[in-house]
Write a structure and sequence with these properties.
- By secondary structure, the chain is of the alpha/beta class.
- It has 2 domains: 270 residues, 3-Layer(aba) Sandwich (Aldehyde Dehydrogenase, Chain A, domain 1), CATH 3.40.605.10; 187 residues, Aldehyde Dehydrogenase, Chain A, domain 2, CATH 3.40.309.10.
- Helices cover 39% and strands 22% of the residues.
- The protein has 16 helices and 23 strands.
- The protein has a 7-stranded mixed beta sheet, sandwiched between helices. Strands 10-9-8-11-12-22 form a 6-stranded mixed beta sheet, sandwiched between helices. A 3-stranded mixed beta sheet has the order 1-5-4, with helices on one face.
- Helix 3 crosses helix 4 and helix 10 crosses helix 11.
- The chain is globular.
- The termini are far apart.
- The structure holds nicotinamide-adenine-dinucleotide.
- The site of nicotinamide-adenine-dinucleotide (NAD) has 26 residues, from helix 8.
- Nicotinamide-adenine-dinucleotide binds next to helix 8.
- InterPro entries: Ald_DH/histidinol_DH, Ald_DH_C, Ald_DH_CS_CYS, Ald_DH_N, Aldehyde_DH_dom, MeMal-semiAld_DH.
- Its EC number is 1.2.1.27.
- Keywords: NAD, Oxidoreductase.
- It is an enzyme of class 1 (oxidoreductase).
- This is methylmalonate-semialdehyde dehydrogenase (CoA acylating).
């Protein structure tokens, strides 16, 4: 069986801890590989090598660093098909969706090619007599990224691109569910000219994560995953004096106003609710139609669209809409929450519980579900389901609808469907959510803006990618200097004021 180890100092290295995790093909349910789970000793040793390699990389001029990333982008395009195939086989998403996953990472890498410009400091000429003041951005040293299973190409690139462009060494701890693509990204980085040791990929589970949290040579950590783990990593990482940003779970609402184009809204809900089997942090999992008439018409439009969805393996061709979920445990959890929804009184309008795909009986497929008359006290409303399950919560008014979203503990993304500009503007200003779509269902900002939620969807001060990433992966130093050296002011014990 294929064995996936670690990528250390520019080589594939087998694990030495003796611990492994199974990597499944979610479409068939078969174990296709096993991945090594690193020990603290393995993580610490790779980090020490990374710290040594960082010294030279950090001193390399930013344009040369950017050229490595430019070359990487070319190689990524060259290998797009191969990467997408491997990604789909471990994650389960369709090939076009896998290409989207790679593409949205690639766009952040393209943004990072602008590092020489983004890393320019600030300068004040003659801030005082003979005094100039300037600031510079320096790498933080060794940074680490801990990433989730659902975007095994995009999120590792969101982390490694800015970290490396800023001159840091980077330790990537990808998800143990789909570790192959991150390893392939490391190979491509080497082919692009990244010096050995600057990027280490350490596979593992909690042991590896705890080793990252406690390693004094790691100065900053970027995490993406579920909220309980985000809170844990943020707390322990900060307590250890590190710079930490953690992006957590979500429960994204779409509010549909009575004046909305309901066909457009229904199409958007299908893509955003069921795409990637609902395993997206920006998936829409709650529809909030305003008014019973809007709700009835929306449900009427959704049912045939949902029933027409084709669920299948990534090898099933272009008409497959979504694939299996990532593990048997994920499937069981989704189906358990569906049962809870029924028990708590929600109306299951489309029932995907008995979905079965001939020839793929052991795959982790979940049929599409639609709930109506969901209320805000139900588990299916409060918890992140991370599956192809859309809940409809009916609101009487716009105020009631935005109140639901405002009161929810998560605040990652949200969408509003309306034809009214006044409502749209009011919504964008008042809502306490990080990423807003107006007639756009999955408002993932492009690479040159920043990505991040509010409330329990994000911990830390700065967002991912865009200019914030360059702030996160650098430290600012401000220098006040006086030339020529001959200026004499005499001694003064007063706090200096510039004249
Ligand atoms: P997860 O929290 O289970 O795992 C994320 C990472 O944390 C993995 O690398 C995993 O190995 C590690 N981990 C898991 N358990 C741990 C523990 N007990 N201690 C230390 N480390 C641990 O998340 P997942 O299931 O891989 O991904 C899905 C979640 O990620 C969803 O909640 C989704 O909303 C969220 N997500 C958020 C964003 C965002 O930007 N906000 C983006 C993508 C995914």
């Amino acid at each position: 069986m294929k064995e996936i180890g670690h990528w250390i100092n520019g080589k594939h290295v087998p694990g030495t801890s003796g611990r492994f995790a199974d990597v499944f093909n979610p479409a068939t349910g078969e174990v296709q590989a096993r991945v090594a789970l690193a020990s603290k000793a393995e993580l610490d040793s790779a980090t020490a090598d990374a710290a040594r390699a960082q010294v030279k990389w950090g001193a390399t001029n930013p344009q040369r660093r950017a050229r490595v990333i430019m070359k990487f982008v070319d190689l990524l395009n060259r290998d797009m098909d191969k990467l997408a195939e491997v990604l789909s086989s471990e994650h389960g998403k369709t090939i076009p969706d896998a290409k989207g996953d790679i593409q949205r990472g690639l766009e952040v890498m393209e943004f990072c090619i602008g590092a020489p410009h983004l890393l320019k400091g600030e300068f004040t000429d003659s801030a005082g007599p003979g005094i100039d003041m300037y600031s510079m951005r320096q790498p933080i040293g060794v940074a680490a990224g801990i990433t989730p299973f659902n975007f095994p190409a995009m999120i590792p690139m969101w982390k490694m691109g800015p970290a490396l462009a800023c001159g840091n060494a980077f330790i990537l701890k990808p998800s143990e569910r789909d570790p192959s693509v991150p390893m392939m990204l490391a190979e491509l980085m080497q082919e692009a000219g990244l010096p050995d040791g600057v990027l280490q990929v350490i596979n593992g589970d909690k042991d590896a994560v705890d080793a990252i949290l406690d390693n004094p040579e790691i100065a900053g950590i970027g995490f993406v995953g579920s909220t309980p783990i985000a809170e844990y990593i943020y707390g322990r990482g900060c307590a250890n004096g590190k710079r930490v940003q953690c992006f957590g779970g979500a429960k994204n609402h779409m509010i549909i106003m009575p004046d909305a184009d309901l066909d457009q809204a229904a199409d958007a809900l299908i893509g955003a609710g069921y795409g990637a089997a609902g395993e997206r942090c920006m998936a829409i999992s709650v529809a909030v139609p305003v008014g019973d008439e809007t709700a009835d018409r929306l449900i009427e439009k959704l049912i045939p669209r949902i029933e027409a969805l084709k669920v299948g393996p990534y090898t099933g061709g272009n008409d497959v809409d979504y694939g299996p979920v990532v593990t048997a445990a994920a499937k069981a959890n989704i189906l358990k929450l569906v049962e809870t929804g029924i028990a708590q009184g929600a109306k299951l309008v489309v029932d995907g519980r008995n979905f079965n795909l001939q020839g793929y009986e052991d795959g982790f497929f979940v049929g599409p579900h639609l709930f109506d008359h969901v209320t805000t006290d139900m588990d299916i409303y409060r918890k992140e389901i991370f599956g192809p399950v859309l809940s409809t919560v009916r609101a009487k008014t716009y105020e009631e609808a935005i109140g639901y979203a405002m009161d929810h503990e998560y605040g990652n993304g949200i969408a509003l469907y309306t034809r009214d500009g006044d409502t749209a503007r009011d919504f964008a200003h008042r809502i306490n959510v990080g990423m807003i779509g107006i007639n756009v269902p999955i408002p993932v900002p492009l690479a040159y803006h920043t990505f991040g939620g509010w409330k329990k969807s994000s911990f830390g001060d700065l967002n991912q990618h865009g200019p914030d990433a360059f702030r996160f992966y650098t430290r600012t130093k401000t220098i006040t200097s006086r030339w020529p050296s001959g200026i004499k002011e005499g001694a003064s014990l007063n706090f200096k004021q510039m004249e």
